[in-house]
């Protein structure tokens, strides 16, 4: 029969054994976790894909380039917060958010800034101006018909990200920002003369005189009504004058 001292030594040895075994299991588990983490973050591991929603000009390939995401795509190496910050600093992007979709998709929801108008600038270039007055892009020509062109005005030497200072253009930007897409799509050109008076040409060929930019905000509702009337009714107008309190329609002879 064992003595109390022997039983005490035996219990202590058993406790040491269980502690050592638990430590060994924990160490193995930690090694497995660390090894898995290391393996999953290797750049040559392909895992998942990126999907862009809502963007017309922001593509998956461009997102990879902007955030320096290498091929093959490994979502374990892609930082959502960093990707969002990169896109928020892009002048073309108004809002961006990211989320994961089962099983291995990173979804990037982008709301792009819409151009309000094109205006000529220095060196025979054209500036694409957003609804906040910010220059979104400067190029040698007008690439698309996404926004009307302003004739009779030049804004000098500008760069991407600059804010337009011209009072008439800023007034026009605010005016256009209050119109629906269905109305702005009917505008073919905007002209500003030497007296800073604004004339809008519609696709129908009818010019609408708005006067200076000082009271453009008060003419939004009337302008919308006139545009809708021209679309639904056959009005043989030479021009429509909104510079006065009541619209004046000059009919063709």
Please mark out the parts with pLDDT under 50 across 5 or more consecutive residues, or reply none.
none
Biggest sheet strand order reads 6-5-4-7-8-9-10-11-12
Figure out the total of helices: 6
Q: What is the overall shape?
A: rod-shaped
Task: Sketch the topology as an H/E string, one letter per element.
Answer: HEHHEEEEEEHHEEEHEE
Q: Overview of this structure, please?
A:
- The protein is an alpha/beta fold.
- The protein is built from 6 helices and 12 strands.
- The longest helix has 37 residues.
- The N and C termini lie far apart (129 Å).
- The mean pLDDT is 79.
Short structural description:
With 253 residues, the chain is an alpha/beta fold. It contains 6 helices and 12 strands.
List keywords for this structure.
about 250 residues; alpha/beta; Rossmann fold; 6 helices
Secondary structure layout plus pairing:
Layout: H1 4-40, E1 49-53, H2 60-66, H3 80-88, E2 93-101, E3 105-112, E4 115-120, E5 126-130, E6 135-139, E7 149-154, H4 167-177, H5 181-184, E8 187-192, E9 198-202, E10 207-211, H6 220-232, E11 237-241, E12 248-251
Parallel strand pairs: 1-3, 4-7, 7-8, 10-11
Antiparallel strand pairs: 2-3, 4-5, 5-6, 8-9, 9-10, 11-12
